[in-house]
Design a protein that fits this description.
This protein is of the alpha+beta class and 494 residues long. The chain has two domains: 6-112, no CATH class; 133-473, Citrate Synthase, domain 1. The protein contains 19 helices and ten strands. A hairpin with a 4-residue loop joins strand 4 and strand 5 (58-68).
Length: 494
């Protein structure tokens, strides 16, 4: 059985551990199930012979890998390059046809499942772009709906296009009464993500879609409707858990303003947060929340986005596909990172305990985990964190929040940015650290954090879904498996 691939040298690839420059020169006892991959005649990237193969999912440059199996069978596999970045990919789509073998990659950590032009990440350099625009530039200069348009259509809108898009989204913000009735039937204490998953899936009943992969207008309508309805769905989850009445969107408010109104409107003080707090506080909070939405709008092929794509590959209703993404995000390994930050701060307790906590982190004591620092993808500073840190500080200042956990967070951040242990390991605070702090300062319960994440990510999910169903060669996803169960056997008594 073939094991995972590793590189021998610039010209050799073997399906086992690394042993040397040539599989013929393996040390005694090394596995003999190795395969050999040799790079063929290379052409310069972007030069003569470079072609984009939509079915293959990348740019072909005439470079190929030759796979030689132990039985002598060979496969010639094109090397694909992305349009940006230094990653290289071996196109194995014809591997089984050529040599009768499949590949094995648990968790798809070394496999590109699709080609996409939406989001680019370079974790080593700390780069995140939406359609080519750095996310920190969008956070500073754009707004969430302009960024949503960019993700959906590939280009920034003109002023008139943006106005039309905002109007279309606003038209879809209201929830039908029968859909609102869903919330009355959830049991007391139902988890917010359970409610959101159910209601988003319920949109499929109100807006049934027999998917036409060629009907782009249909796809756009589904996208705009989902983006429009998520703020009220999120606010209803929050208000339902608190026993508060329905709060409706208002035509004179923008997207984020409507969200804040529907979340925080108090029947005693109609008008939402801007009637509870001063205009200065409201302006700062609205800007921070809008940037929160932008920073979480998309993040390449993560677990929930891949879930949406796999569900959508069966031509399922787009609302059901996004509901599947919400369910995937619910998992603590994916969408619960900012909740984990708050739990850690509560564990530390008070500012005076931070130094002892840091000592335990450095000594790697059991049960002590540093949450919100470093990132699985980013080996440098999280590009989403720097500007958002500034906004969070503004929010804490104007709201004059008195919270021991926030004092703990600021002390932990101070140490992390100056202590050599953190700096040398590039354990910088990531966006989850700062978003957890901001959402807590606004009084949002920790079990609602992931709902706000889902609201933001809906734009990315539906953009990725639309890209997939409109691409040439669209077909259902069907991963393989290595079966390790019992062989065929006879039922007793037969």
């Amino acid at each position: 059985m073939l094991s995972g691939a590793s590189i021998y040298s610039s010209n050799w690839l073997a399906c086992s551990d690394t042993y040397g420059s040539d599989p013929q020169e393996l040390p005694d006892g090394a596995p003999r199930c190795l395969v050999r991959l040799r790079l063929g005649a290379a052409r310069c990237f972007g030069g003569s012979g470079t072609t984009f193969n939509a079915n293959a999912g990348g740019i072909e440059t005439g470079t190929f890998a030759k796979l030689i199996l132990p039985d002598g069978k060979e496969a010639s596999l094109p090397i694909l390059h992305p349009s940006t970045g230094t990653d290289k990919f071996v196109n194995i789509s014809t591997l089984h046809k050529q040599v009768g073998h499949y590949t094995y990659d648990p968790g798809f950590t070394c496999t590109a499942s699709c080609a996409s032009s939406i989001t680019f990440i370079d974790g080593d350099e700390g780069i995140l772009t939406y359609r080519g625009y750095p996310v920190d530039q969008l956070a500073r200069k754009s707004c969430f709906l302009e960024t949503s348009y960019l993700l959906l259509y590939g280009e920034l809108p003109s002023p008139s296009e943006l106005d039309d898009f905002k109007s279309e989204v606003k038209k879809h913000m209201l929830l039908k009464k029968d859909l609102l009735d869903f919330f009355a039937h959830f049991p007391t204490g139902a988890h917010p993500m359970a409610q959101m998953t159910s209601v988003v899936a319920g949109l499929s009943a109100f807006y049934p879609v027999n998917l036409d992969v060629k009907n782009e207008d249909q796809h756009k309508e589904a996208a705009v409707r989902l983006i429009g309805k998520m703020p009220m769905i999120t606010s209803m989850v929050y208000r339902n858990n608190l026993g508060l009445p329905v709060s409706y969107p208002h035509a004179e408010l923008d997207y984020t303003g409507n969200f804040l109104r529907m979340m925080f409107e108090n029947p005693m003080y109609p008008g939402g947060m801007n009637r509870i707090y001063s205009d200065e506080v409201y302006t700062v909070v609205q800007k921070a929340m809008d940037v929160f939405f932008i920073l979480h709008a998309d993040h390449e092929q993560n677990a929930s986005t891949s879930t949406v794509r796999i569900a959508g590959s069966s031509q399922a209703n787009p609302y059901a596909c996004v509901s599947a993404g919400v369910a995937s995000l619910w998992g603590p390994a994916h969408g619960g990172a900012n909740e984990a930050v708050i739990d850690m701060l509560a564990q530390i307790g008070k500012k005076e305990n931070v130094a002892e906590f840091v000592r335990k982190v450095k000594n790697k004591e059991d049960g002590v985990r540093l949450m919100g620092f470093g990132h699985r993808v980013y080996k440098n500073y999280d590009p989403r964190a720097k500007y958002f840190r500034e906004l969070v500080q503004d929010v804490l200042k104007v709201m004059d929040v008195k919270d021991p956990s926030l004092e703990v967070a600021m002390e932990l951040e101070r140490i992390a940015l100056t202590d050599d242990y953190f700096v040398q390991r590039k354990l910088y605070p990531n966006v989850d650290f700062y978003t957890g702090i901001m959402l807590r300062a606004l009084g949002i319960p920790t079990n609602m954090f992931t709902c706000l994440f889902a609201l933001s990510r809906t734009t990315g999910w539906i953009s990725q879904w639309a890209e997939m169903v409109e691409e040439k060669g669209f077909r259902i996803s069907r991963p393989r498996q290595i079966f390790i169960g019992a062989p065929e056997r006879t039922y007793p008594g037969l």
